[in-house]
User: Fold this.
Amino acid sequence: MKEFCAILYADQDLLAIDKPAGILAIPDRWDPNIPVAQQLLQSQFGTLLPVHRIDKDTTGVLLYARNEVAHRIISSDFSSRKVEKIYFAIVHGQPESQAWEVGLPLRADGDRLHRTIIDASKGKEAKTRFEVIERFRGFALVLAIPETGRTHQIRVHLAASGLAIVADPLYGNGDPLLLSMIKPGWKGDAYKERPLIARTALHSAKVSFIHPKTKKELLIEAPFPRDFKATLAQLRKVRPSWV
Assistant:
């Protein structure tokens, strides 16, 4: 099998990968033609049981259990909020606060676009903590810690904060970010320009939990992918914060 991702951690109980954009964590009922990490990896690692998921275009740490015992324990830890997940997002706009929380209840598949919506009466409890890591003119790098695991939770809670994630097609405008859009006096060839980032700018950076067998704390980290790093580098260069 051609390698499509980096293996971040593997033992008899767990497998963690650095998932690239454009690949599903588990099969999707909406588009059966999109490649699925679970299926691509099972020929090499055997049965893989999902304990959480990240969106198709979200990059970074994705964890699977490799047996039923580990799956039961880790799934329980995710459900009881014993697992800490840290994400980073590049967003449009300027956050009003340096740190804040959003606790709006969410209902998955709530409209004709199959988006997650805020629903005070039928939505499930959802809470996300946010912190601004770096500010640029018109953009920010935000750290997100979801305390619950609702579908599209970070994306919806950021949009509700007036901060759509760059290139998010469901909760933002979906437009790829081009250097010509952010650099004053850009003089390149518009027909040859390639986007800095063309997918939802969200990255699963860290997952920490207690190993189901060793009972020792395990921290799994994934570095920023190339498009994410390139976008930040250009924002630092051409859109540094005035603050």
Summary: Residues 46 and 216 are 24 Å apart (CA to CA). The domain at 6-238 is CATH 3.30.2350.10 (Pseudouridine synthase).
